[in-house]
Known about the structure:
Chain A is 29% helix and 23% strand. Chain A is α+β, with helices and mostly antiparallel strands. Chain A has a seven-stranded mixed sheet. A six-stranded mixed sheet of chain A has the order 14-18-13-17-15-16. Classes of the chains: A alpha+beta, B mainly alpha, C mainly alpha.
Amino acid sequence: MKRKGMKLLLSIVVLTTLTIALSACSGDKQGEDSSQITIGIPQDMEDSLDPNKAVAAGTKEVYFNMFEGLLKPDSDGNLNPAVASDYKISDDRLTYTFTLRDGIRFHDGTTVTVEDIKFSIDKCADASNGDPLVPAFSNVESVNIVDESTVEIVLKSADADFLANLATVDAAITPASNNDPDQTAIGTGPYKFVSRSPQENFILEKFDDYWGEPAKIEQVILKVCANTDSIVMDLNGGSVDMFARVTPAQAGQLNGQFEVLEGTMNLVQAMYLNNAAAPFDDVRVRQALCYAVDKEEILLMVSDGKGTQIGSSMFPAFGKYYMPELNDVYKKDIEKAKELLADAGYPDGFSFTVKVPSNYTQHVDTAQVLAEQLKAINVDAQIELIEWDSWLSDVYADRNYEATVVGVDAASLTASALLMRFTSTAGNNFINFNSPAYDTAFANAQAALEEADQTEYYKECERVLTEEAANVYIQDIAELVALNKKYAGYEFYPLYVQDFSKLYIVEE
Amino acid sequence: MKIKREPMKRISKNSNFIAGAVLTGLILLFIIIGCIHTPYDPEAMDGAGRFAGISWRHPMGCDNFGRDILSRVMTGAGTTLGVAFATVAIGAFFGVIWGAFAGYYGGLLDEIFMRAADAMLAFPSILLALMIIGLFGPGKYNVILALGIAFVPSFARIVRSEFIRCKNMDYVRSARLMGAGNLRIMFVHILPNAFPVILSSVLIGFNNAVLAEAGMNYLGIGVMPPDASLGRMLSEAQTYIFSAPGYAIFPGIVLILMILGFSLLGEGVRDN
Amino acid sequence: MRGKTILKKTVSTIITLLVVSFLVFLSFSVIPGDPAVSQLGTNATPERVEALREEMGLNRPFFLRFGEWLLSFAGGDMGISYSYKIPVKEMILDKLPITFTMTVMAFILVVIISVPVGIYAAKHQGGRTDRAVITINQVFMAVPPFFAGILITVLFGVVLKLFTPGGYVSYTKNFWGFVGYLFFPALAIALPKAAMTVKLLRSSLLEQAELDYTRTAYSRGNTTRDVLYRHVLQNAMIPVITFLGMALADIFTGSIIIEQVFNIPGLGRILLTSISNRDYPVVMAIIVCLAFAVIVINLLVDVIYRFADPRIRNED
């Protein structure tokens, strides 16, 4: 009896040890003959492989490495020629003539032709489904092939932002011959698509025939790390070499193998208020909230004091448009806030619901601090965590909410990418902002031919947003990139993109 | 070396009961004190006290907002306990009725009821929770409802098999001969006999409810911040597991002690 | 089982699956969120949403859509994922082995831990080891699975460095590495279930030991070993098998949280993200498959149960 029990016990011990031993061997990475880097991403790219159709910011920032438009932004915010090697703008600013880069190839080896360009731009401008794929392209009158290396795009009206819109992933040039763009990714970027496994990884490989400076690392593995809470363990344990957005708390727990690079996320984090819903339809109530909020404390609580305070819908990476003086329009002043509330008819405060997408820890944390701060003026902010997809349909599409904390980014390197949505007729004006002064200023900016005038009008727009207290503006969140010291070359962009082609392996 | 019951068993049963009662009592006391008074406002933030370590002023330290963890554990334990109790109450109430009818009447009714139970068991509770949240909006009470509904079929199964076992026993037959109605037989005669089994599944169910509440919060649906619950605290703490291990450990210990206390108590009650 | 029983079981299985799929389909028209809006993201404008809804066929009547889904599913076509644009069947075939392996490993762990420990505890009932086992058991049962997962990651991954946290490798690349990584999540799932099984087996054994037939067996001069393995264990296993069957189904459907903790791209994770992406072709397919697995496991338990317990066998 005893012997049998012992045997069983022994076999368990042996089996367990064996399994553990096996797993210990497998923990090491497989042979690294070719250079590779494993980059963690917080959620999978649950998107089409077609760059013109992809919507999630997390997808587009990766597609930046695979696809290119006629132009391409660099890390300083300049627009450089990409698929086109040169361009000319007619004097009336309506006709753009592009010269196709000589010998440029797609990932499948075929040469890019002017037909591909026409196909791609037409696809983006196709309005048969109500709206064109790239909204700014509703202004495209026609795309004409001039000769086998020249294409002409004619606009309906002058548009100072047109070039910037051509330089986005949305307007990428893809081959007309691709029958199944949803599942086959063919672009002209420095990396080409190899494979994807849902919720597991997304693998890219260096494109050898790239027209420009080639990528340095052969293989980029984007690994889905859905459990962002365990990202510190994944990094320290060595299963991930880079993670683009760690929180300051996570950065503090990384071991000596990692370098933490600091930039900004280039988004406008704010408590967005539904300007059409009571009590936020009263400007005094909105201003009261702004006076009650202490941005500095939020930054301290949420991100160890890192990040940049903002006062309007613009962030510092946009250089000339950014107005730091707007940050201090509403200095914390509880008495003033209470007065404003009393004037507006809420001497005893009120209660409202703030909907926050639950997958964004930093927005959830910000909302918690906000709610705590608003207690000082007897305003009770009830936090309601919702899924991102409920947020998209309830808050963004149906505008059925009172307040929400999110970050809004810019699709292209233009001020209008951030400001257009607040015009009273914009389809994506999810805060229902309605100000004739704003509409006029924005229209003037769009029509302005001189750059200086345009900048001045855009600044006027920002000022209106601040004065009207359209939203409770908070910050441009600090972006902390954890990078294993084996690698270097990471560059921050003024847009929401990740450039893998600049990364290289540090020689030891 | 023979397998037989030894006198030792009695003592260990009693010790189960005593240990369980003491643990549960302590936890309940902890929660009741938390309802009346906490050392600090569990929602008050303090920028200077972020991640404060263990000290006399903060026996469990502070979290990422400088909130006192002890105060949050006190209120959070209450929330968790409340959710678990309500969930089990819903699950057991409807489960008993469902299982009693299915088991007692048998035949087609049983078949329909049990297929429905199978379907519900195969239906992920997360989706159920989302559905209920979609219908009634998010929040604590809808999580209770969702978990409660998810618990019904497992109670129903257990009660059903008890009723099948009991329905042909002598005391049921004699009750029937004496003219007792079906409902009376089911709920006056059989139910008390099935009670020990139901009690044990209630206790297992209670543990599952506490774990499920924690799991829901881990997935981001459940108690809304800034309210505390043990599950919510545990999942929030995961990010800070190296810089502030106490944030995870204390709620974890209280959660484990709570479950431990109830299951020991349950065993003691059943065995005596 | 006789032919009639088999037929009855088949019919009821199909009905259950129909009910499940209907409920899931229904739930998607109830929960907030719209597949078209999800696909368009922040690019959504009312006109585009409407156009896409039309294109996806979401504007047609509910029962028509359900009927169509049912027909194509019955024909083996599970549709195409809304978000990934990949055939759902391909996705499931790719992810099923992961969850399946983890379930089987967890189940094996439950059995090889609980059966010897349970027997040992029962044999030495009241002894120091027995009491130690009972205490440890109670603690293991009280740990939430995701917390156990975190503790295991910290202990085995960070402190002992037995595995790389988050270092999942695909089974197509390195099978043994895959199995090695899954060992730890399987352990996190297995520990509480094993603890429950030990408890059940121990009390079941002790109950049997008090019954008349055991006493008779002893009085006939049988050795402890004979009595235990020939008579007691067989009877004591009946409730344990039922429990193990339920546990197996539970592990299989309940792996969502552990997959999240250990970053494993299995069926549970796909299910969770598909629910939040409102990618219902994927959700429908996974749930129907899971439901089918649960029903089959329950059926198997039923069969084993009948086989193990002569009383039930005779009733049939």
